[in-house]
Amino acid sequence: MYWKKLFIRKEKFCMNTNDVIEWLTIADSDFDSAKILNEAERKHFEVICYLCAQSAEKYLKGYLIFSDIIPQKTHNLLHLNNICVETDSNFVNINASCYFLNRFANDIRYPHLYEVTENDVHFAIASVEKIRNFQPILELRNINENEHPV
């Protein structure tokens, strides 16, 4: 199966809460940065959307680590979400958000591939909000807040 190439499941791998918290903290930081840039007078749509995709990637990887799955290095949000679906079928509910954000995951950093609009920015931010507040991810974020209150 193709998904086997995207992650390693280790029998004796023991999930480290600190690793999960680190993934979620970086995801929150990327998302906060995207929202701050969106408030700037001069908006760089590509950078905002890229940060949104990065944030979504880290939320998904945090969930995978929590599930004792070590994801290989990939920026493909659809593949990461498919692995999450293998663990929890409810992840199919955020597939559309992952699909939308996936176009900003990597190629957006190179010239002339995509024209990104302000509408894309609004959808990117809304997509990350959906992923960030998706129940399994929200539960992980609550672990983070309980163990490391701000």
Describe what you observe in this structure.
With 150 residues, this protein is mainly alpha-helical. Helix content is 61%, strand content 4%. Helix 1 crosses helix 6 and helix 2 packs parallel to helix 3. The relative contact order is 0.18. The radius of gyration is 15 Å and the shape is globular. It has a two-stranded antiparallel sheet with strand order 1-2. It has a single domain, classed as Four Helix Bundle (Hemerythrin (Met), subunit A) (Up-down Bundle), CATH 1.20.120.330. The protein contains 6 helices and 2 strands.
Q: Which whole number gives the mean pLDDT?
A: 86
Poorly predicted residue ranges = 1-13
- How helical, in percent, are the residues? 55-70%
Shape by Cα distribution: globular
Order of helices and strands: EHHEHHHH
Note the gap between the termini.
42 Å
Helix and strand layout, with pairings?
Blueprint: E1 7-9, H1 17-39, H2 45-66, E2 69-71, H3 77-87, H4 95-102, H5 118-132, H6 135-147
Antiparallel strand pairs: 1-2
Helix pairs in contact: 1-2, 1-6, 2-3, 2-5, 3-4, 4-5
Sum up the structure in keywords.
about 150 residues, mainly alpha, 6 helices, 2 strands, about 60% helix, about 5% strand
In short:
The chain is mainly alpha-helical.
